Each structure stands twice: as C-alpha cells, then as structure tokens.
Amino acid sequence: MKLGLIGLGKMGANMTERLLKGNHEVAVFDINKEAVQKAEKLGAESSVSIDDLVSKLPKPGIVWIMVPSGKPVQDTIDKLKLLLDLGDIIIDGGNSFYKDSRQRAVELKTNNIHYLDVGTSGGIWGLKEGYCIMVGGNENIFKHCESIFKTLAPENGYKYIGSSGAGHYVKMVHNGIEYGLMQAYAEGFEIMHSSDYSIDLHSVASLWDKGSVVRSWLLELLAKALKDDKDLSSLKGYVDDSGEGRWAVSEAIEKNIPAPVITSSLLTRIRSRQDESYGAKVLAALRNEFGGHAVKKK
Predict the structure, then answer these.
(1) Sequential pLDDT tens for the chain (298 residues)
(2) Do 237 and 272 meet the contact criterion of CB atoms below 8 Å apart?
C-alpha cells in the first residue's frame, strides 16, 4: 500500500523505515530537508511540500501525520483539507487531545475526508520492536488501512478501539499510567541509592527483570541507563511532560475518578523544573514562625 507521511522526527523517521521494510511505498515530507533526504536514501519518495506529497498518492489518498500535538497538527490538517479529495484519509498518529480529535473528525466529515486518531506507543525502539497502535474512527476505514497498522505493530500489537477520539483517549490513559510507573521506579531506586548499603543499582534492575512481579520493559531500560552511570551524574533532574498526563488527570477530575498516583507523578515532574521552590520557602517560614524551627539561610 502507498501512503504519505508528514513528520520525520524520532518516531516518524523510524516508522517510515519500518513501513518500507514491510514493502509499503511511502512518500514523505518534513520541513527538515536533511530528514527527507535520509528517508529518500532508505527508499522513500521525497516531497518538497505537502502539495507535492498529496500529488504522489493514489486514490483514496492516505496521509499519516506525525507532528507535535496542538497547532502543528491543526495547521497540517488545515492544509490537507484544501488538497485532499472525497474519500481520502488522514491518520493522526501523534499525541493529540482526544476531544480535539473527535472535533476534527466531525469537521473533516463535512469535506468528505476520513480521519483516524491513532495512539502510537513505542518511542525510539519502535523500529526494532514495533509500535503498539490504538485506533479510533470509522471501523471500515480502519480495515482499509489495516495492513499499515499490521506492518508497524508487533504481533497482536494493534487494535480498533472505537469511534472518533477513542484511539487518542486510550493513549492518553496509557501515558498517565506510564507516569505513575516511572515515578514508582524513580522513588524506589532513590531510596536504595541513599541507603547505608553499597547497592549495585544496575544489578538490582537487571535482577528484578528476571521473574519479579515488578519486571517490565521500563525496568529493562532503567538497567540500560544505569549500566554506565549508576549515579546518573550526567543528567539533571529536570523532567518535562508532553501533555497526556495533564489530560489524564483532568479527565479523572471531570469524571470524579480518584487518580492520586498519576496526579502525584505529574506534579512531581512539574516540581522537578524549579531550581528553587517558593512554596518550600513558605513552608520553612511557617514552621519557623509557629514553632521556632530552624531555617537555612542563603
């Protein structure tokens, strides 16, 4: 099957390569010309613009968008809306907010353009291991594009989830859970790192990955990170978030679902970005005022 792919970042480039290895034809476009040239060397068909990419596609045209959520996705869809024809298909494989995806499906339907929201997990390892794919939208359109998902995913690694927005909804919750898992590992290993014992944390991570109830791919990756730098001394403890955790917490609040682990892990990430916490200063000042507790001065 031939499709167009817009966005050749860390995931988009690897997805293109996996699709090519799976005997699909892929026309590509990215604002980074070097990324396009690299994909072309692997066998992709390069495009100088979105217009050019669309012109290379058979009908119905299929365009997979792999750009950052929010304005970049919307800007890309707005361009495609003017170029695509009746029955063409847009696949949004990024981490878009599910309510935005639901609305985009409605708006594109008025142009007779189909829209699939596809939660895609796998990160930079997806090229080798495959991507876990969660699809929302019209089921018949999913079936039309199924060979694409089958190529990108490992065995049994893709699934039709439900109507428009469902794919990105499930991916949102997936990432919220990911936040909590990562935070639990972070706290546990910090406790061991500060213990009185000389614990080889790399060995512990590797050990726990052999039959332990806390074994996981994340733990395997942690063992890899600790192998050469057990203190992680080359890193700063600054942790970004890309939005899905916030959306998951917001959804939990909206639905009156208690989600303390996901919420706490999100707030811990936000706290990591502060060089110095004003809130912590307030706490220190209050303890000093009411109890005469010692404070540390700059």
Answers:
(1) 999 999 999 999 999 999 999 999 999 999 999 999 999 999 999 999 999 999 999 999 999 999 999 999 999 999 999 999 999 999 999 999 999 999 999 999 999 999 999 999 998 899 999 999 999 999 999 999 999 999 999 999 999 999 999 999 999 999 999 999 999 999 999 999 999 999 999 999 999 999 999 999 999 999 999 998 989 999 899 999 889 999 999 999 999 999 999 999 999 999 999 988 888 888 899 888 888 888 888 7
(2) yes
Distance of alpha carbon 112 from alpha carbon 108, whole angstroms: 6
Tell me the pTM.
Answer: 0.93
Q: Is-catalytic flag, 297?
A: no
Q: What share of the chain is helix, strand, coil (3-state, %, to 5)?
A: 55, 15, 35
- Angstrom CA distances, 240 to 8, 93, 249, 268, 273, stand at 21, 21, 16, 10, 8
Determine the angle formed by the axes of helices 98-109 and 166-193, rounding to 10 degrees.
160
- Spatial separation of the C-alpha atoms in residues 214 and 236, rounded to whole Å: 26
DSSP H or E segment with residue 45 = strand 45-46
Rounded-to-integer distance, Cα 42 and Cα 27, Å: 12
Q: In the annotation, is 171 catalytic?
A: yes
Instruction: Give the chain's end-to-end CA distance (angstroms, integer).
Output: 64
Check 38, 171, 244, 251 and give the catalytic one.
171
**One of 146, 150, 178, 230 is an active-site residue; which one?**
178
